[in-house]
What does this fold into?
Amino acid sequence: MHDSNGATLKRISVRATLLAILCTLPACALADDMPRIEKKDGRFAMIVEGKPFLMLGAQINNSSSWASTLPNVWPALIDLHVNTVEAPVYWELMEPQQGKFDFANVDLLVNGAREHHLHLVLLWFGTWKNGQAHYVPEWIKTDPKKYPRELNPYGKVLDVLSPNSTSNLEADKHAFVALMHHIKDIDAAQHTVIMIQVENESGSVGSVRDFSPAANKEFAGQVPSALSTALHAASGTWSRVFGADADERFAAYSTASYINEVTKAGKAEYPLPMYCNVWLTYPVHALENRDHPSPGQEYPSGGAQQGNIAIWKSAAPAIDVLAPDFYSDDKAFYRQVVTAYHREDNALFIPETGLSKDFGSNFFYALGNGAIGFSPFGVDYTNWTISDAKIPAYLSANFALFQPMSSEIAQLNLDGKLQTVVEQKGMPRQRLHFPGVDAVVSFGFPQRDGEMPPGTADSSGRAMVAQLGPLEFLVTGFDASVSFELTNPPGAQPRNEQVEILRADEGQFVNGTWQTSRIWNGDQTDRGLNFRSGNTNVVRIRLHTLPLYDESVKSPRL
Ligand code: DGJ
It folds into this structure.
């Protein structure tokens, strides 16, 4: 039998071996194709395989990273049209006896992701999982003397490891370094794994901070000067500097410093981008006897919640991204969260969100705020979050639309050329401003001449417009029409100019090259590009200008 495939495979495996050998050298850290986060003029993009990469992700359920469940995972991911899977690595499984590592579940995930042409984000369920220590190995759980727990103010022993303990830190660090070493061994040549989540929703459930004698001693000391300088705060003890919030801020500093050490050690082994996900502080409207949500009760105290971002940024510089998990149908709150985490020093990344009908609008809104990734939680067919092994169309339609052009979209966002708009109740028409041109977006159908558009029943309209050239745009959306108007700088004379469509191509980017499948005209373009609720199309539109009035005609307007 002719052996050309065999020869190719051999070449690939020689290359992989060479790369693996080379990657044992420190220079590997600088390899061009290492996944990374790039920043340009305050905007961000993930770079994967040397190209911008928009992570269309899905996180599988907590107990789904097993050989017995993974067959029910992959079909759901394909049905959602993701390009990346987020999956947990369990410390208890990976280091069942101290110093004895078993990476079988990591290998299963990496191999499965490769077979399904997906990238992988590994979630390190180590010291923290949802503000508790449920994933630490038995040899840690059963030895609280060596691996101390947090105590609440009354001395109650919590199922949270103390962040103020060196032996806890060293044990986690040792395991995490072993994990990163293994990932480097098996993946440095292929980069299936593109990012690591360090811990999961850290902080403590059950107490505002650790009240063990060791922690109390630290708390009685001075706020480290690097922190007070970074916060432009006075120097002094925690209580003096932070007043009523001192316990919570101390917990944040302790947790962030601990995770920073774990992350630094892991990156020294293999420097993938690393992030921490956040159990947010949610607005609570019906609290008994209190006027605000309480740290350690409504959310794990010390995580990178909205009020702790500045402390985390200062104490955990090794963490690339602080990433909010979003579980709420409060749209105004979603906007606040996006604003809080979309910062000059923090790329917006939503690593977990619910599977509700808001998914589409929230995805578009994040994209318009420069998101590098977006990922619903609980995507698998284990009958936990999704029943009948079926992804609803209101979820899959979004990623199906963006998956083929995810690299182009990430590039346009990095270049500041992309905007989105989502429908808000009572605002069926909105404008996106580009230099010299507005995109006018009208939600809901039918749209009648001279009338405001009807909007949609559930305010689910959404659109994306990206500028490819002065009068050229890439446009898509759901339940929205998009038309274009010339605009003037404020105070300038009205221009005797108007725009009209030269050509509207429906198509897709295929390996970076645009391919037209048909030209839109007639009902599809009259009164704007019309994208219905079941839209599967992206349109590249070219406009041109022509005079608004013929100057030679003396009309009553003159
Ligand atoms: C947030 C956590 O990070 C996930 O691991 C999972 O427990 C979800 N909550 C469940 O809603």
